[in-house]
Write a sequence for this structure.
């Protein structure tokens, strides 16, 4: 399994952040805020796999793109980007040596914080 940067997701996150569709709550707990498995299923049913993919910074190109297993490092709740989600993605990417994903998350965090 090789997880690579999902550049479409990064660009989509940038668009959302620039449009103000972001939850900047520093005290947010991503594990509590991220969509549930059931919420993901509803989103996929209503919007399709391409839309689902855009909410994940990581993609496993060897996995079936019509499975959740293909996507990792979520950053939002299908409505807005969550600062806590970007921080979680950055942290996990760094922990598992996914440097491109970690770098992209840092850049998104800078955009959220207005330091880019």
């Amino acid at each position: 399994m090789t997880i690579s940067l999902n550049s479409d997701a990064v660009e989509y996150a940038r668009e959302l952040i620039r449009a103000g569709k972001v939850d900047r709550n520093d005290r947010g707990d991503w594990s509590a805020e991220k969509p549930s498995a059931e919420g993901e299923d509803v989103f996929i049913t209503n919007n399709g796999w391409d839309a689902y993919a855009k909410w994940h910074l990581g993609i496993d190109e060897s996995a079936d793109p019509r499975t959740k297993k293909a996507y990792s490092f979520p950053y939002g709740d299908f409505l807005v980007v969550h600062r806590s989600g970007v921080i979680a993605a950055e942290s996990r990417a760094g922990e598992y040596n996914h440097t491109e994903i970690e770098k992209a998350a840092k850049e998104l965090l800078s955009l959220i914080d207005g330091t880019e």
